[in-house]
Amino acid sequence: MAVRMAVAVGAPMKPRRDLSAGELETLHQSLSRMLDKIGLETQPRVALRVLELAQSTDNRVQDWADAVKTDWSLTGRLLKLANSAFYAQRAPVTKVERALVLLGTERTKAICLGFYLSRAATPDGVRDLTRRIWGQSVYRASLASALAKTSCPGLVGEAFVVGLMLDCAVPLMARLLGDDYVRLHNACDSPAALFASEFDNLEFTHTDVAATLVRRWKLPIMLARPIVWHHAAPPVRHNGDSVASLHRIAHFAGSIRLGDDCTPQLPATQPSDSTRIFDLSPGDLRGVVAAASIEYQATLEMFSHLGDRLEDLDAVGGTVCLQLAELMDAQIERALRAETRGGAERLHVAGYSIEVEPGNSGEVIAFIAGAKGERLLSCSVRPENETAESIRRKLGLEEAADTDMRQLMRVIQAMAA
Predict the structure, then answer these.
(1) CATH number, domain 17-40+120-301
(2) N vs C: which end of the chain shows fewer Cβ within 10 Å?
(3) How far apart are alpha carbons 48 and 70 in whole angstroms?
(4) Which of 160, 250, 169 is nearest to 212 (CA)?
(5) Helix crossing, 44-54 with 105-117: angle to 10°?
């Protein structure tokens, strides 16, 4: 395909295939500045789900994780924050669920709402491509997760993140290059053909943009390398390290042809590749694909009730502003009320430090605090509607003794009185 698209990145246009290592570093720096200008948007269905969760006081960390982990932009931002020096984790945070436990529901709510509020306007053609790629990315994440369950069960969460991120830069390519890139993308019949066309004809590829993103997000090497290298064939044999395992999964999940409905279109050569890379028979591969399809459908079902609200998405920006303001006001009000009541009540349950303080209108807020006193996980409760068992589930205290839970319940009831 004889296509040439140039973007002003400071030097005469060269195809990506002709760039030296030094020129590649300069290109990535230029791409980072360009991404600053266009912003990173989150998907409409995810944005609406975040709004829905923010308006409810009765949801769990898992509810946020189920929504956030389907969006590449929110996933990258939350992992970056969880891996920052502020949280001082001994090992890199590579799973969305772990990141959300560290951040806590209130901080997660503020980050998600603020991120949605800052999303940039997108032209119609690019918006359609973005929505299609998002659906395909959710499927690739489901497929990567299913492959990990068979080949490296300890990396299922990481595999989902990697699978989700494989095409995260494709919509940004369309934002940077416009309708010409949309036409180029639509003319390619497979992910490999798209990458080859970009490499031969454009100044940069979507993997260059992805490399810039993972650097900005400071993703751990375990996640970053498989995302950026997924078009490079992995070694047939390796020593079983995490990066190599995820690279194999990323290469396979990223090479699958997907239809407009995000269903896989497996060519005849794919089963032999799976046998070589994963030691899967064609029958086993069909089982993995079936499991991925089930997870994909279950994930999309979470957003199905939001379909009729998509047309009004652009009108809810004011609601987001109001939500952020209310969130900040509520936090200040709780702090003042805790001070007048002598501060939060503290007790230890199942090895955790629990803090309880008054909330709004008869509510009580229970927090799990970290080793440094930082609040990690919270739930809002009305004592008259709760039992010790329901609070146990909301705070994830399954291992707590019944006597400890009864004591926690008494403290909550006293706080509400």
Answers:
(1) 1.10.3210
(2) C
(3) 13
(4) 169
(5) 140
H/E stretch holding 384 reads none
- Asked if the model's pLDDT at residue 226 lies above 60, the reply is yes
* CA distances in angstroms from 165 to 88, 134, 190, 245, 390, listed in the order given: 25, 10, 17, 16, 35
CA dihedral 181, 186, 190, 193 (to 10 degrees): -40
State the helix-helix crossing angle for 242-255 and 221-228, rounded to 10 degrees: 30
In angstroms and rounded to an integer, the radius of gyration of the C-alpha atoms of the chain is 23
Q: pLDDT at position 242, please?
A: 87
C-alpha dihedral over 26, 31, 33, 35, to 10 degrees? Answer: -170
Rounded Cα distance, 72 and 62, in Å: 17
Tokens 């931002």 locate to 77
Q: Which of 28-37, 62-71, 125-134, 306-315 has the lowest mean pLDDT?
A: 306-315
Q: Which of 179-193, 259-273, 343-357 shows the lowest per-residue confidence on average (mean pLDDT)?
A: 259-273
Predicted TM-score of the model (pTM): 0.65
Question: Residue 115 pLDDT more than 70?
Answer: no
